[in-house]
Amino acid sequence: MNGSTAEKTVTAPIAEALARGERYPDHERITVTPAAATHIRKMVDKAQALGLRIGTKKSGCSGWMYHVALAESIGADDLAFSVPNERWWVVVDAASFPYLKGLTIDYQGEGLSRRLTYHNPNVSESCGCGESFALPPSS
User: Fold this and answer.
1) What angle do CA 41, 119, 84 make, to 5 degrees?
2) How far apart are CA 87 and CA 135, in angstroms?
């Protein structure tokens, strides 16, 4: 076994996190475009990680920022979302999920620059730098 995502098995913590994610309707789940899936798979395979972890933290010029890292473990309150045709998962902590419902992760390029981008229907405005965002007052 070389650690590639194609060989990963669904352990009990992953199955439980997937079940927590599946409680939500499709339009509230986190999705990943094919371009982003290909990019993320390379990182996950290289690190032999479980997937991509995304959360939010108070920071930046608009108030909130995404916190993105490779998922090395699954916490008791984490939610996980399957990515079609992939054997890695998007993992989100329960506290961040209300701010990420319906998020789509994409991978885009402009010139020589390429990066993950996030389409978040919960965002009321984004900073000009593209690194931070604001949420409506009720969030």
Assistant:
1) 35
2) 32
If 0-12 CB within 10 Å is exposed, 13-18 middle and 19+ buried, where does residue 65 land? middle
Alpha-carbon span 41 to 47, nearest angstrom: 10
* pLDDT per residue as tens digits for the range 38-72: 999 999 999 999 999 999 998 867 788 999 999 99
84 vs 38, 46, 57, 75, 128, CA distance in Å? 11, 20, 27, 22, 32
Whole-model pTM above 0.90?
Answer: no
Amino acid, res. 122? N
Number of domains in the chain: 1
Domain contains 139: no
Consecutive 10-residue averages of pLDDT for the chain (139 residues): 56 96 98 98 97 91 88 97 96 97 93 88 78 74
- Is residue 55 domain-resident? yes
